[in-house]
Amino acid sequence: MTVIELETEHEDAHTVARAVAPDNTDEMETRIEDGKVVTRIERGTVESAGATADDYMRNLVVADELVSAL
């Protein structure tokens, strides 16, 4: 099992977290912790975990840009 935990800061962490959470798979959890978006990814292989993290980060960037533009 490979686990990746990503912690990111945003102007509006709650809105960003709500925007990306629907894309979570059963192996992902997104939460707010100390005003930051924290996402835990658990996958069977390093390659799968890395691919999931890459997809998630792309979604996170888009969500952050959209929230900042509002």
Tags for this model:
3-stranded antiparallel beta sheet; 70 residues; 2 helices; TATA-Binding Protein; 3 strands; alpha+beta; elongated
What is the structure about, briefly put?
With 70 residues, the chain is α+β, with helices and mostly antiparallel strands. It has helices at residues 13-20, 46-69; strands at residues 2-8, 28-33, 36-43. It has a single domain, classed as Alpha-D-phosphohexomutase, C-terminal domain (TATA-Binding Protein).
Describe the structure.
By secondary structure, the protein is of the alpha+beta class. The protein has a single domain, classed as Alpha-D-phosphohexomutase, C-terminal domain (TATA-Binding Protein). It contains two helices and three strands. It has helices at residues 13-20, 46-69, and strands at residues 2-8, 28-33, 36-43. The protein has a three-stranded antiparallel sheet with strand order 1-3-2. β2 and β3 (36-43) form a beta hairpin. The longest helix has 24 residues, at 46-69. The chain is elongated. The chain starts with a strand and ends with a helix. The mean pLDDT is 96.
Helix and strand layout, with pairings?
Blueprint: E1 2-8, H1 13-20, E2 28-33, E3 36-43, H2 46-69
Antiparallel strand pairs: 1-3, 2-3
Helix content: 40-55%
Number of helices: 2
Please, what is the CATH homologous superfamily? Alpha-D-phosphohexomutase, C-terminal domain
Q: What spatial form do the alpha-carbon principal axes imply?
A: elongated
Strand arrangement within the widest β-sheet reads 1-3-2
- What structural category arises from helix and sheet content? alpha+beta
CATH names the topology as TATA-Binding Protein
The CATH architecture would be 2-Layer Sandwich
Taking pLDDT < 50 over at least 5 consecutive residues as the criterion, the unreliable ranges are: none
- What does the main sheet amount to? 3 strands, antiparallel
* Overall CATH class: Alpha Beta
**Count of extended strands:** 3
